[in-house]
Automatic annotation (TrEMBL):
The lineage of its organism: Eukaryota, Sar, Stramenopiles, Ochrophyta, Eustigmatophyceae. Keywords: Membrane, Transmembrane, Transmembrane helix, Transport. This is Battenin. Residues 206-221 have a biased composition (Acidic residues). One of its GO terms (cellular component) is membrane.
Length: 484
């Protein structure tokens, strides 16, 4: 018993480490593209930002309606391909259009990866898995900027060479998902699969009786397939119409495996046939356990489009704070922080402050996203932090205009902004994981993943307006001083 407990603890640590690495690898290329935006298009950084956000938004918006038809393995492989294609396209592209296409590949990869992995956490260790994933995404911000600084600025490699060096990242992503990440551990998910196996075994027994004349024994073995009734999981899974033509649900493969094993087990009579059936069921179930992480939760297939939309709307207590905090912090980054410098008149000074402000912000994000198991999340906290973030945004906007606190001490508030943003991310998804029913959890996490992207897109508009207002106000003050 103790040995089993040690094995389970080791598997849990391995899975948590794998989710941390997946979070890091999923976001780091996205950050590298943002950090090198000026290298891609010095005169139109906004185009790079748009190409790096818009595809993610479209993926997350549509994900709840098609993700369940595509296995996690296929989605993970697609992410690895898009990651490599993005790096190669931007590095080797000779025109802005080609390079922006590469940035779009990166955005698609980040959106598919984040929505998929957040949904997959529902099959593992609950909120602790979300914390591991969140911590990895937080560290991606630090590593992404550090990658560009180390290779491009310190080693004086060209930006294309810096991107080519990052080609090891998609390899690491594929290895982590397919080899480091173990089987799902969700008890609810395993129970559903066990029920499916029982139902399929009954279906095979029914076919035996009809096609091969297997008689029902005294213990009821060989009894026909029970009437599951309409609307049950079994009736949906065993219905031919429930199978997607492109990506079959596990019940298809399980049924085929059960039939193959049944053929192997047949050939003996009496007791030998019984042992063959036991081996058949055991091997089929064992194979099923190996496959269960490759597909969405069975209940996900049963939701209608209206039910999916209703589920998303019901998540507003969690998604509204996520949208708000991301809107506020990215408006600070793209607006207020870019208008601060010592002295503010020098463009180089503004760039230096902006770089340090973002680094302090990323450190704060990493620390707070890693604290999910230390600070129990709650709805009051989830709503309080975005309000505080909005106050920080107001402070930076006013300070960028009137300079009432204007020194390097402002970096401490940039760090705090990162703490607020990271804490809301991990708290929001942890609360969704805890407060939703087992059969809704995976779809709920996928649906809610769009919240941060909506906040980022809204912030781009707000940030541009804030930057223009602060610069115009400062210009008027300088004109008045020159007249005096």
């Amino acid at each position: 018993m103790g040995r089993d407990g040690d094995k389970q603890a080791m598997e849990k640590r391995q899975n948590l480490a794998a989710f941390w690495a997946l979070g890091l690898l999923n976001n780091v290329v996205y950050v590298i593209m943002l950090a090198g935006a000026k290298e891609i298009n010095a005169g139109g950084v906004g185009l790079v930002f748009l190409a790096d956000v818009a595809p993610t938004f479209l993926v997350k918006l549509s994900a709840p309606y098609w993700f369940h038809h595509v296995s996690y393995s296929v989605r993970a492989s697609l992410c690895g391909f898009l990651m490599a294609a993005s790096l190669l396209t931007v590095a080797l592209g000779r025109t802005l259009a080609v390079q922006l296409t590469g940035v779009g590949f990166c955005s698609l990869q980040a959106g598919i990866g984040e929505a998929s992995m957040l949904g997959l956490t529902a099959q593992y260790h609950g909120p602790s898995t979300i914390t591991a994933w969140s911590s990895g995404t937080g560290f991606a911000g630090i590593l992404g900027y550090a990658w560009v600084v180390f290779f491009h600025l310190l080693l004086h490699m060209s930006f294309p060479a810096t991107l080519m060096a990052a080609l090891l990242l998609p390899v690491a992503w594929m290895f982590t998902f397919f080899y480091a990440l173990g089987d799902p551990t969700s008890e609810a998910y395993q129970e559903v699969l066990a029920d499916i196996n029982d139902e399929l075994s009954s279906a095979v027994d029914e076919r035996d009786e009809e096609e091969y004349g297997v008689e029902e024994g005294e213990d009821g073995e060989g009894a026909g397939l029970p009437d599951f009734g309409e609307g049950t999981a079994a009736s949906a899974l065993l219905s031919p119409n429930a199978i997607s033509p492109l990506y079959s649900y596990p019940s298809t493969s399980l049924r085929n495996e059960a039939e193959e094993e049944e053929e192997e087990g047949r050939g003996g009579e009496g007791e030998g046939e019984g042992r063959g059936r036991e081996r058949k069921g055991g091997r089929a179930q064992k194979r099923a356990r190996k496959k269960k992480g490759k597909r969405s939760h069975p209940q996900t297939y049963a939701f209608t489009i209206r039910e999916r939309w209703s589920l998303f709307l019901s998540l507003w207590p969690y998604t509204v704070p996520l949208v708000t905090v991301y809107w506020a912090e990215y408006a600070m980054q793209s607006g207020a922080w870019s208008a601060i410098g010592f002295p503010v008149e020098e463009e180089k000074a503004r760039k230096i402050f902006y770089a340090w402000a973002n680094m302090c912000y990323q450190i704060g994000v990493f620390l707070s996203r890693s604290s999910g198991m230390l600070l129990p999340p709650s709805l009051p906290l989830l709503w309080t932090l975005p309000a505080l973030q909005c106050l920080l945004l107001l402070f930076f906007c006013l300070n960028a205009i009137w300079h009432f606190w204007y020194d390097w001490g402002l970096l401490s508030l940039c760090f705090v902004a990162g703490l607020f943003g990271g804490a809301v991310y991990v708290a929001g998804f942890s609360l969704i994981s805890r407060h939703t029913r087992d059969e809704h959890r995976e779809l709920a996490l996928v649906s809610a993943s769009i919240a941060d992207t909506v906040g980022i897109m809204l912030s781009n508009v707000a940030g541009l307006l804030l930057q223009v207002i602060s610069i115009d106000e400062r210009g008027r003050e300088e004109d008045e001083e020159s007249e005096n």
